[in-house]
Write a structure and sequence with these properties.
Elements: E1 3-7, H1 16-29, E2 34-38, H2 44-49, E3 60-63, H3 70-80, E4 83-87, H4 94-101, E5 105-110, H5 114-134, E6 139-144, H6 152-163, H7 177-185, H8 189-192, H9 197-214
Parallel strand pairs: 1-4, 1-5, 2-3, 2-4, 5-6
Helix pairs in contact: 1-9, 4-5
The structure holds adenosine-5'-triphosphate and magnesium ion (MG).
The site of magnesium ion has 6 residues, from helix 1.
Length: about 220
């Protein structure tokens, strides 16, 4: 059975789809067989993949927004892949809760603002409840995304994440135009510009998540 990474937060637009695609491309390039399950009714991931550029080469993408089929679909993809990445919608919904319940690791993208932080706190409660329900520890990490500059607001958000036990990754992902270009062209930031700072940040984030996702 594959490892399951769920990218989730009930805050819209924090970069779930962007980070999901970027990490998928990174692990694909490092030799893993990857599938993506798009559980967002808006199907942003499917739209991105349908552009036919190199970003999704070799990655299977399946859409499923019927919450009652999510666990089954994750199981099916998991049987044939090394890693299943589940993209979720940017509002609290049952599909997201089911996905979290089968996750090995939940990645919660957070922007440096109070609303994003509060949603991350809510996500932690969802993950804690899912852990209790399934009687196992579901690992999670937050990651600061769309960081423009290292301002006091960024440091304050990061400190809060730490103090609240929300486990921020030491990698911060900057606000970089290459991510937006990639979604227009259907590419991945790694393919569009392999030596870009964005590409380096994604590689660093992926390596930081690997011990919790695949074991040390
Ligand atoms: N690090 C980044 N730098 C620049 N732009 C970014 C970055 N991350 C995300 N974006 C842009 O922000 C917007 C929202 O990102 P994305 O769609 O990935 O968020 P989301 O959490 O999946 O949104 P939703 O909740 O609607 O599903 C997109 O236009 C995307 O290109
Ligand atoms: Mg999305």
């Amino acid at each position: 059975m594959a490892n399951i990474l769920v990218v989730a937060t009930s805050k819209g637009g924090t970069g779930k789809t962007t980070l999901g695609v970027s990490l998928a491309a990174y692990w694909r390039d490092s030799g893993k067989k990857i599938a993506i399950l798009d559980t967002d009714p808006n199907q942003a991931m499917v739209r991105w993949a349908s552009k036919g550029a190199d970003g999704f080469r070799g990655i299977s993408v399946l859409a499923c927004s019927d919450e009652h089929s999510i666990i089954e679909k994750v199981g099916e993809l998991g049987a044939e892949n090394d890693l299943v990445i589940v993209d979720t919608a940017g509002f609290g919904n049952q599909a997201m809760i089911y996905a979290v319940a089968v996750a090995d690791l939940v990645l919660v993208p957070v922007m440096a603002d109070e609303a994003s932080l509060l949603e991350a706190v809510k996500m932690k409660k969802v993950i804690d409840s899912a852990s209790t329900l399934t009687r196992r520890e579901i690992a999670f990490r937050t990651v600061l995304n769309r960081v423009k500059r290292m301002t006091t607001v960024v440091r304050h958000t990061e400190r809060n994440l730490e103090q609240l036990g929300l486990r921020p990754a030491s990698t911060r992902v900057g606000d970089r135009v290459v991510f937006q270009e990639a979604s227009y062209h259907g590419g991945s930031p790694l393919n569009l510009s392999s030596n870009s700072v964005a590409g380096m940040e994604i590689r660093k984030l992926a390596r930081e998540l690997e011990p919790e996702l695949f074991g040390a």
